[in-house]
Design a protein that fits this description.
Layout (H helix, E strand, L loop, with lengths): L6 H9 L1 E6 L6 H10 L3 H4 L5 E3 L6 E3 L10 H7 L4 E6 L10 E5 L14 E2 L4 H4 L16 H24 L6 E4 L3 H13 L13 H20 L6 E3 L3 E10 L1 H7 L12 H9 L2 H10 L1 H13 L9 E2 L8 E4 L15 H13 L4 E6 H4 L11 E5 L1 E2 L2 E5 L8 E3 L15 E4 L1 E6 L13 H9 L13 H9 L10 H13 L5
Parallel strand pairs: 4-5, 4-7, 9-15
Antiparallel strand pairs: 1-18, 2-3, 5-6, 8-18, 9-16, 9-17, 10-11, 11-13, 12-13, 14-15
The structure holds zinc ion.
Zinc ion binds next to helix 7.
């Protein structure tokens, strides 16, 4: 914006508000977008990640929209008779029968162009069949990859813009929401080119992130022109971005070094990895859907296959975007080692021990990070890793070896088991076409703001409308009744002010 490259976003800022927007902890795609559309924290909506542990097993399953425990905006608005159009919001598969339409997000397990399962109503499918879910393989980054990726991202924005503009123009929707994931993808993979200070800096593609933002700005301009007039508009990010440095933490190696975890000879957990690596991108989803049980078991096997559960008190999934620790709890895990009566003390001690490690900025029990009936779906300890000179550490898979390492220069581009060159940050951005008195808005404030703008009462939410103060001010401002002083009072005031030197 400062370079004058984003005129439509700058105009939106001039019309209303531009503020940092606090994400969820951790600032990850699924919990963040779900908080955005429900107005509640992950402890109440129950979505913490793309996957969750299967109770009673050392295995994971993919979560979907049916796991969401709080009503989304579109459900509340549909019930109130409002017309809604929803395009590409993560965590919305299967699509919900809204009063309008819904095209599910990139997590849709859609295999072929004839598969209409991601669209409500299904009759809309012919018009959105070109919708993009994934642009490229993000794991095998080699020669020519960045060229292809950047072009694919720019094409993807144009394609989504065209579909959205066509649907937006069709009727005067009460609520229309569209998610572009391209700013996220380009920042993950092009940060090292964009940022000359990055310890992973490489020449080339200096303008890639700018180009994607400029293209997104143009899309915003066209969408606003299509919506017309003075509609209430919000541009919301699910998190911010920053650079990743060269430091790598291996949480399971650290746990092993402290005696909390023991590795076992690796069992065969290669089925899913094999399938994922060789399946063409478009078929990945179908594979998961058709073999979901198998995929979940194999995913668990490949992530946890090397752990000797009978000698392990705590382990980590070692997710780069969600560093966390799980306790091997008796009665919950099949070979649990920590008795329930020791759980609280063990978690507290482990948090304290983790925070003595330079690599960990903060280690907190899940109950301190989120609240509500579904906190039990979260990992037991949620970590915030330290940064080095503003650059994040990566959390990567390990099976023995040192707790801390550095990626080699030939790995700076990132990719499978090398992390990414740009990573999520807790503070994102909000542009709102209205004025607000809120100083520190969070993602949970977005849903109540939408409901307030449309005058619809919603269920209890953690967030507050960003319009509330303005709206309350208008609705509840008391009538101003002039009550002039009596002549005696006037005389007293005059004497007092004269005594104080105000009146000559
Ligand atoms: Zn991301």
């Amino acid at each position: 914006m400062a370079e004058g490259r984003l005129p439509h976003l700058a105009a939106l800022r001039a019309r209303g508000t531009c503020l940092p927007l606090r994400s969820t902890v951790p600032p990850a795609t699924f919990p963040a977008w779900t908080t955005c559309v429900t107005g509640v924290n992950p402890g109440k909506h129950g979505i913490f990640d793309f996957t969750e542990m299967i109770p009673g097993h050392y295995a994971l399953r993919f979560v979907n929209a049916t796991f969401r425990k709080a009503p989304a905006l579109w459900t509340v608005l549909s019930q109130a008779g409002k017309r809604v159009g929803i395009l590409g919001v993560p965590g919305t598969y299967p699509p919900e029968p809204v009063n309008g339409f819904m095209v599910s997000g990139f997590d849709s397990p859609v295999a072929t162009r004839v598969d209409a399962s991601f669209v409500w109503p299904p009759s809309l499918h012919p018009e959105v069949r070109a919708w993009r879910f994934a642009d490229f393989q993000e794991t095998e980054i080699g020669e020519g990859w960045h060229d292809r990726a950047l072009n694919s991202l720019l094409d993807g924005i144009a394609l989504k813009e065209d579909i959205a503009v066509r649907l937006l123009a069709r009727e005067p929707w009460d609520f229309f929401m569209l998610v572009f994931g391209e700013s996220d993808t380009v920042s993950h993979h092009f940060w090292l080119f964009h940022d000359p200070r990055s310890p992973r800096h490489r020449p080339g593609f200096e303008d890639a992130i700018r180009k994607v933002y400029e293209r997104l700005d143009a899309a915003v301009g066209r969408l606003l022109a299509t919506a017309g007039g003075e509609v209430c508009v919000a541009v919301v990010s699910d998190h911010g971005f920053g650079g990743a440095g060269t430091g790598v933490v291996h949480l399971n190696n650290w746990l092993a070094a402290q005696g909390h975890l023991h590795f076992a000879p690796e069992r065969s957990g290669g089925m899913k990895r094999f399938a994922l690596r060789w399946a063409p991108e478009a078929w990945r989803g179908a594979l998961f859907r058709r073999f979901s049980g198998l995929a979940a078991r194999a995913e668990g096997g490949s992530r946890f296959g090397g752990i000797d559960w009978a000698r392990t008190r705590a382990w980590s999934e070692e997710l780069n975007y969600f560093p966390s620790i799980r306790v091997n709890l008796q009665g919950r895990e099949p070979e649990g080692q920590v008795p329930p009566e020791h759980y609280d003390a063990f978690v507290r001690e482990l948090c304290a021990q983790l925070e003595t490690w330079d690599a960990v900025a903060r280690a907190r029990p899940r109950g301190e990070v989120c609240h509500g009936p579904h906190v039990g779906r979260a990992p037991d300890i949620i970590l915030e890793l330290a940064e080095e000179d503003g650059y994040s550490l990566s959390c990567l898979r390990s099976r023995g070896g040192p707790p801390f390492s550095r990626i080699r220069p030939d790995e700076y581009y990132g990719g499978k088991e090398r992390g990414m060159t740009g990573t999520h940050r807790p503070m994102g951005v909000l542009l709102l076409s209205e004025r607000t008195h809120a100083a520190q808005p969070g993602l949970e404030d977005i849903a109540p703001t939408v409901l307030a703008a449309l005058g619809v009462a919603g269920p209890p939410m953690d967030g507050k409308s960003l319009l509330a103060e303005a709206a309350d001010g208008v609705a509840e401002a008391p009538d101003i009744v002039e009550a002039p002083y009596s002549p005696e009072e006037e005389a007293m005031i005059e004497a007092r002010l004269r005594a104080l030197g105000y009146l000559e």
